[in-house]
Amino acid sequence: MLSGAKILSGTDVAKEIRERLKKEVAEIRRQIPTLVPGLAIVQVGGREDSNVYIRMKIKAAEEIGMYAEHVQLPRSTTQDELLATVKRLNEDPCFHGIIVQMPLDSETPIDAHLITDAVSPEKDVDGLNTINEGRVATGDMSGFLPCTPNGCMELIKRTGTPIAGSYAVVIGRSKIVGTPMSELLKWADATVTVAHSKTKNLNLLIKKADILVVAVGRPEMVRGAWVKPGAVVIDCGINSIPDPTKKSGQRLVGDVKYEEALPVASHVTPVPGGVGPMTVAMLMQNTVQSAQRVARRLIDMEFRWCLKPLPLKLTEPVPSDIDIARAQEPKDVSVLAQEIGLIPSEVSLYGTKKAKVSLKVLDRLQYEDDAKYVVVAGITPTPLGEGKSTTLVGLVQALTAHKRCNSIACLRQPSQGPTFGIKGGAAGGGFSQVIPMEDFNLHLTGDIHAVTAANNLLAAQLDARIFHEATQTDQALYERLVPAVKGSRKFAAIQLRRLKRLGIEKTDPYALTPDEIRRFARLNIDPHNVVWTRVLDVNDRYLRKITIGLSPTEKNLTRDTSFAISVSSEIMAILALATGLEDMKQRLAKMVVAFDKAGTPVTADDLGVTGSMMVLLKDAIEPTLMQTLEGTPVLVHAGPFANIAHGCSSIVADDIGMKLAGKRGYVVTEAGFGSDIGMEKFFNIKCRASGKVPNAVVLVTTVRALKMHGGGPIVTAGAPLRREYMSENLDLLEKGLPNLLKHIENGLKYGVPVVVAINTHGTDTAAEHELVRKAAKAAGAFDAIVSNHWAKGGEGAADLAQAVIDACNQTSEFKLLYDLDMSIEDKIIRIAKEMYGAGTIDLNSKVRDAIRLYTEKGFGKLPICMAKTSMSLTGDPSVKGAPKDFKLVINDICLSAGAGFIVPMCGEISKMPG
């Protein structure tokens, strides 16, 4: 053997690599405890030679702290079934690497190339996907390098032999080894010749090689006499040949005659113990690198979406909203989802322009820092609205498309009834809209219809229960509730919960006494104290009061009731406030639908309908992904009425938005109507439920609304504006400023900076804008910005966006308005005085009795959700400006136990618009 000739041990080098990878995995776990590098090994059939390799890979993964899963499929697996498995693994964030063990041991034909190409390039740790192969072929080493060639390169580097300028010969042209090996050597500046078993004068060619890589699959084909003295020989072959001296009768050899090459070459890899361990080590290295990329994404505080905004074609005069919306072609929602960091398994497509987003994203990103949290509210509006939604959309377009910040708009889904009957839509306006407009305003993904179905299912169950209890014996009722199935009775889980509430600890349906059967079966609902109504997502004034039970089949069990608009259903409020499926289930169960004849609340769970409602609402809990005119993301979810319920989009939409946008990003959400209604409920109800701390308030105002509050003529929807609103009138404007100042004061009471957005109209003047700006700043607003987003989209809101960014950099001193331990009456007084400017409140005897009952039944510590007109700070819609020390009359009160609040009624509030 020549002096200095070395056996190039892949076993030793692989051990060093595994030790390094072990430290890298530990560092990933230190930074993100829940992130464990995961490898999925897919096998079809059960060939024992494949099983040996799989066990080696799993053992290596476990040694370095990785998670490896052997996904073994039967030999009967079809190509489509295998593709479906690969697709599932591609979308599973727990796996950072996927390999498909070859050969495929299948009874049915499977295209192996199709399968390797089905593995996502981002998880193709074998480096066999055509995209990764193509990268290597063009010198792009940013993807995954094929494991065996990469291991060979590592071994060559360990010899100290310079690759650049060397003459390399690769014997073999396979996709897995020979071809990519030649590419890696070429891009390392070697001069490369690829040969194979049919190459003429192969021995003479090999004799010239400084670096020889053999992967031809023929035992001991290359002889020592062919090897150039001092060459580096890398033997990738592994072949079994007869050997009677071995117990098995076989031994493993390479493609090179090892004993003959040793005296000639400077370095030779043994078989086994050479290239094989390096292949496994490189597989582990690729998987760890994949996990490191995910980790960098999660911990990189400077992460920015690779989002491509859609350009706007601004025109003057500004076209109609519908013309603008239809002129812009939205990007495919699957592309938008990918741009903002969603993975395919978290997105359910509804066509190409809208998609549901799974709550699974919250689990995946649970350790991601939240984005800044911004709420958009308004002053007391005119009946025309002051462009709160338009401002929100324009602001997010500015933040995302122009300031290059990760930013998501969270909007409520508009009710179909007001869209047809009053508003005409709620997608924004001008060049600040959500598109497609028609989808946004009508049906969307069916959430409101799901709420309607669940609400009315509960109503039907309630009335059916009243009917059956009035017409059935105790035993007959019991047999209906706990029917015998194949001769045996069994309580459902929801029935066991009811038994527990009744203090009955029995679980055997046959063990109940007659008295226990009666207590279990009879709710004894008082027909005159039913608080649950049916709903419909249409403005139908003739359903405001109805009589039900008039059919002869109902045996004169009639009662008066009503319909409400679907978005006023307590189920809609629950959808908006639930933090997840289990929370929603608990809230639905607690809904009080009636009182029994003893005055005890009857819940949805008592009626046994909780699970059925959950089935109807299981998809409605997921927000819908849409986009603005500039292609920036919007999450649309829930739509509780703002003057009856709390008027905010959902907690889960905000939560998902804050995780996707990340620490340097922004989530801009809405609060219905003015600060006295939507913003107050956003803080005291929604933020209390979610635990989120807001960073800033954007308060939308208009010159038009302030002139109305200054004593201007009545503004009526559909009627032309009077002269006072069409020309400069500083005196009228100044008289209306107290309304704006009161709303600024309301925001500041929560310790959050308030940015005033002056939503400009074409009839405004610079002097009017300046008057509003100075007054707002003097009243403590962080800033006051004139915003022209309606005419110019995000560009017109760029200054507003910068003001919001600056405000969010302030330290939040957020505090709630009241403590839940206060009495119901004291909480009402606190809101009335602090938010509205009232001096006293007036509670009639009916309200006082209800407050007493709610307190006795354990509801006294719930927050308050005031139902009040949005057209005035007072309870009288005709009173404008900012009156003080007035009397606020509370003429009714109701309980929303599932939503988790008590609703005092100020004045006449209709739950069914006309």
Write the layout of secondary structure elements.
Blueprint (H helix, E strand, L loop, with lengths): L5 E2 L2 H22 L6 E7 L3 H16 L3 E7 L5 H13 L5 E4 L11 H7 L11 H8 L9 H12 L8 E5 L6 H10 L3 E5 L6 H5 L4 E4 L17 E4 L3 E4 L7 E4 L4 H4 L5 E2 L6 H25 L21 H7 L5 H7 L7 E3 L5 E3 L2 H5 L7 E7 L9 H15 L4 E5 L4 H6 L6 E2 L2 E4 L1 H5 L5 H25 L2 H8 L11 H9 L12 H8 L3 E6 L3 E3 L9 E3 L10 E3 L1 E3 L4 H8 L3 H10 L1 E5 L4 E3 L6 H8 L6 E5 L4 E4 L14 H11 L4 E9 H16 L5 E6 L1 H7 L13 H4 L3 H19 L5 E6 L6 H13 L4 E5 L1 H4 L5 H11 L15 H13 L3 E4 L1 H12 L30 E10 L4 E6 L8
Parallel strand pairs: 1-11, 2-3, 2-4, 5-6, 5-7, 7-8, 8-11, 14-27, 14-28, 15-26, 15-27, 19-22, 28-29, 29-30, 31-32
Antiparallel strand pairs: 9-10, 12-13, 13-25, 16-17, 17-25, 18-23, 20-21, 23-24, 25-26, 32-33
Helix pairs in contact: 1-10, 2-10, 6-7, 6-10, 14-31, 17-23, 18-20, 22-23, 25-28, 26-28, 28-29
